[in-house]
Amino acid sequence: MKIVVTGTRGIPGILGGVETHCEELFPRIASMGHDVTVIRRSSYIEPENRIAEYKGVKLIDVYAPRRKSVEAIIHTFLAVIKARTLKPDILHVHAIGPSLMVPFARLLGMKVVVTNHGPDYDRQKWGRMAKAVLKAGERFGTRFANRVIVISTVIADILATRYGRTDTDLIYNGVVRPVKSASRSWLGKWGIADRPYIVAIGRFVKEKGFHDLIEAYCKSGLGSECSLVIAGDSDHEDEYSRALKRQAREAGVVLTGFIKGEPLNQLMSNASLFVMPSYHEGLPIALLEAMSYDLDVLVSDIPANRIPVLAPSDFFPTGDTDALAREMVRKTKERGTPRSYDLSAYDWDKIAVQTVGVYEKVCSESAH
Question: Do residues 208 and 202 touch, judged by C-beta distance below 8 A?
Answer without folding.
Answer: yes
